[in-house]
Amino acid sequence: MKIITSSELDKKQEILCLGLFEDxxxxxxxxxxKLAEELQEATKKKIFSKxxxxxxxxxxxxxxxxxxxxxxxxxKEQFNLEKLRQILGKAVSxxxxxxxxxxSTNLVELAHFLGKEEHLGRAAAEGLLLANYDFTKYLSAEKxxxxxxxxxxxxxxxxxxxxxxxxxxxxxVIAECTNFVRDLVNEPASLVNSVYLxxxxxxxxxxxxxxxxxxxxxAELQQEKMGALLGVNAGSANAPKLLILEYKNASGKPIAxxxxxxxxxxxxxxxxxxxxxxxxxxxxxxxxxxxxAIKAAEELGLKKNILGVIPICENMVSSTSQLPGDIVTAYNxxxxxxxxTDAEGRLILADALAYTEAKYNPEIIIDLAxxxxxxxxxxxxxxxxxxxxxxxxxxxxxxxxxxxGDRVWPLPFFDEYQDWMEGTISDLNNxxxxxxxxxxxxxxxxxxxxxxxxKTTWAHLDIAGSSxxxxxxxxxxxxxxxxxxxxxxxxxxxx
Length: 495
Known about the structure:
The protein is α/β, with parallel strands linked by helices. The protein has helices spanning 33-44, 81-97, 107-110, 117-131, 141-145, 164-186, 194-206, 218-223, 227-232, 285-300, 345-360, 373-379, 391-404, 441-450, 485-494, and strands spanning 2-6, 15-20, 55-58, 67-72, 102-105, 152-156, 211-216, 241-248, 255-259, 261-265, 305-315, 327-329, 335-337, 364-369, 384-388, 408-410, 428-429, 457-462, 468-469, 479-480. The protein has two domains: 2-156, Leucine Aminopeptidase, subunit E, domain 1 (3-Layer(aba) Sandwich), CATH 3.40.220.10; 179-494, 3-Layer(aba) Sandwich (Aminopeptidase).
């Protein structure tokens, strides 16, 4: 998508998208008297109330546009950058639905009052490019034709602020890296295995002198005594791997990003049922988000040291699979009884977290994982669950989430939870041993992970709901969202 700016509404585009706030006196009389009259009549008859997201379409023969779409923007005092992303996403969707590939809009111009032009530019590019995404790789030519992307968008922009264009550029990088992750997560698990993700990581590292890639294969994982990761992969024909990407563009300790990379999760012998197993190709979304965040950091030229660590394997059923009741020994020497083979993500993260802390001594560790169905129950699709005991890091991640629209929401981590994962015949159990075993599932999973981060400031992001939507969003279709890339990028940009 080409995004251009113009001081006036560009009449070369096919669709014109305008906006009106509920409390605005603007009726576009200065643009066209007939349009103003039509809008006044539509408002009077309550056909168009200007509530946020509402749409009114018309056609004026003296204008060159094929269609004119007026969007309700709601109350001006409630409008924010996320609503700008959403309304631009709706503009993209409406243009596509009309069979057109270009539009002109004043929607960004109307949002000028929100403040920093750089942030405005970011949000504009993100809303447009994220909404323009479709995963069409496996569609026939006929069906691809019906999902043609938008080629050109013209943004009316009368201000002279020099930071708007750089904001557009930054937003483009973040959105494109997010869409890169969406592609990875949407692909079938028959393609995206440990070998495939290693190739992706090699491509990312090979494109930059600032990124170095290290890969631990099965033999090296055995030498490092990563029994938790190896146990999960025991039933798979595909070998496990640990990918380590080092982005160096500063001095000092790195910020470590650790992402869960289960390329397919059958549940093991605690087999997942129908309606749950079908989407388990997405269980590597945390690992994919780390790849996307590293890619974005390099393209943005961030003056940071960032470490990406991704444990990759499958959780399959076979004669060699890990069994309920088995005991494995993690990298840090802690023993773990397997109470449930479907609580596998925390096992591979346990080894990755302990290894990251011991080998690289990072300043901060942030892990991302499609870890628990409990988080989907608690928060649905619109926020990732966050566990973080450090108030400064928690506040910074929450602020980055709100600014980027890739929201995270804190969950409690009270002292009363801390012994819920203690084992009886081993140091730990991989499922809760308290109550009925399912209470506070997202929190107890984080309690388990915390046993493998002993000294480093740490945050855990459960993206089980936010990474793959079963519903349509304003700028997301059903499917992968690339959750994690935007919040991490905004955090790294601002901190």
